[in-house]
Fold:
Amino acid sequence: MWDYSETVKEHFYNPKNAGAVEQANAVGDVGSISCGDALRLTLKVDPENEVILDAGFQTFGCGSAIASSSALTEMVKGKTLDEALTITNQDIADFLDGLPPEKMHCSVMGREALQAAVANYRGEEWVDDHEEGALICKCFAIDDVMIRETIRENSLSSVEDVTNYTKAGGGCSSCHEGIENILIEELAARGEVFVAAHAKGKKKAPKKQEALVSLEMPVAEPAAAEPAPAAPAGMSAFQRIKKIEAVIEEIRPNLQADRGDCELLDVDGKNIYVSLVGACSGCQMAAMTVGGIQQKMIEALGEFVKVIPVDKAKAAAQQQALA
Amino acid sequence: MSDIYLDNNATTQCDPLVVEAMLPYFSEQFGNPSSLHSFGNKVGFALKKARKSVQKLLGAEHESEIIFTSCGSESDSTAIMSALRAQPERRTIITTVVEHPAVLNLCEHLEGEGYTVHRLGVDAKGRLDLEEYKSLLSDDVAVVSVMWANNETGTIFPIMEMATMADEAGVMFHTDAVQAVGKIPIELEDSPIHMLSLSGHKLHAPKGVGVLYLKRGTRFRPLLRGGHQERGRRAGTENVTAIIGLGVAAELAMANMAHENTEVKALRDRLQEGILAAVPNAFVTGDPDNRLPNTLNIAFEYIEGEAILLLLNKVGIAASSGSACTSGSLEPSHVMKAMGIPYTAAHGTVRFSLSRYNTAEEVERVIESVPPIVAQLRKLSPYWGENGPVENPDQAFAPVYA
Structure:
């Protein structure tokens, strides 16, 4: 089932302005060939000032087509024709709190019905200038026709180009096969051969927050993904401890704001022992907090260190037992 | 009032007996059937039993002809790819325009790789032209893949006749029988069918298990290579619990076969008669005289299927539609298109598919619920007037199409 917003459902279950307007003086009949939906918009326009006095719709179509039609009639009532024409299909979708990408064409149909009705009122002939094709990229609702036109106009030759020009393929990337197939055809049409990009791992920008790192896990080449921070050369042990303390002090206000706190317990080589108290300890986010502290430490010290949270009470008991 | 489920061609409820049989294999009976020890051994025996049940349901000669897979689609892909790889000199596939995407999309892909694909057309009732079929059978055909029954209309194809024709021409024959198995009796032992796909969740077994029937002696190349499971024909640790569930479901399907073809069929017929009597401008699609006992597909003219489904859903009735808008692909149903149903009717097709769990009360409730929903949507339709379709609907409303 589609993930329709509550507003879409409301306009579908209880559509506003259903039916033809009596004494209409503007009629727009449009359809969307890709899914067979069709819409007749009737308007009653005041000839004096071109204000839309009443609007009604008749729709042969799915839930979102009916909802888009209902929304459109609500949006145009009271507006002048020129004001109404500034409504975009995105405005219709926004009015409905969004439409699934596959259903955006329903809002396009609404806007076109309006253009057609206005043209009809003004005695002009309305020609549809856009063509719909099979939906390729579902993340950004880009269809086959749009991709082909862009490839032709700009002589594109790679999936990356297509993404840069149209956004298609820039999301989940599952449509890359479809885009490649279009490229193969379009390149063949202009006498070229499509060459796919080499397989490559996507280089990610280094993450600032190392999320949910389990610190007890052996960390393989921990600093590899990180551009080596400028190592402050020749830091003495004292300077190093001071730096560590400074980092802890820097983050404490943040933790305290969440009714938590952090305390430095010990430093042993690359291991920095801290205690998390208050709302931080035992919280599911503790690992994330520790990861964040560790990241800051690494940046400040210019070396890899491990931040290890310690249960303070247990640590004290252990020390007593030893003593 | 509980909700009414009339979408059994999409998937079915797991039978409680199936669930009960599966449960121990999630907990104490967790062994790997390939293992020697008792943990594995017991599970191995349970698999054997399930295989026998499926063998019986299909009327297969040998239990080793049953290969468990993960789903109907995997069985279809395995069958077609195997036929191509085992006979590399043959470069043609025959199928139909009304197949499930599991076959159609694979064939389209193979076409892109240089294979020739013949798609048999259908007439207005969804029937194939066997003369056309006969003329296409040749030494270049690697495999014929034709569904036993259509998922949207329930129309049954003359599979035995077609398999015989293929066999006589020396061509491998595969049938996607996911909609037919469990609903109509099947006897493969003396049949010329080489391969058959079935899917567990269409017959009250869980999702995630399917079967490829492979007649002994049929040349075969696995899709998944690796371990020795399924005699090396489908590598990968068996989905033990689901397979055991499918075994029980197969036994239940056998036991309920008569019920399906009498009681369920009677409910379906009552539903059809009740709706058609109350709703004008509605008709049954497909071949009413030759279809699955549980399936009813009605086209409601001048309204759109998704809208019907949403309103049915609101009153607790689950069905499905061949309308473009419900598929996610925006393509109107290829089955309705192939039968030449005009789009003002094709978009308003609703499929009601029943199971042995449906009751006469439920059917009556649906018969009551449908007419007002259709009337409500027709009120919104530009093709509909006060009391019926507007005169010359195609001229009265002729929108500019984008």
Summary: Chain B touches chain A through 35 residues (CB under 8 Å). The mean pLDDT of chain B is 95. The radius of gyration of chain B is 22 Å.
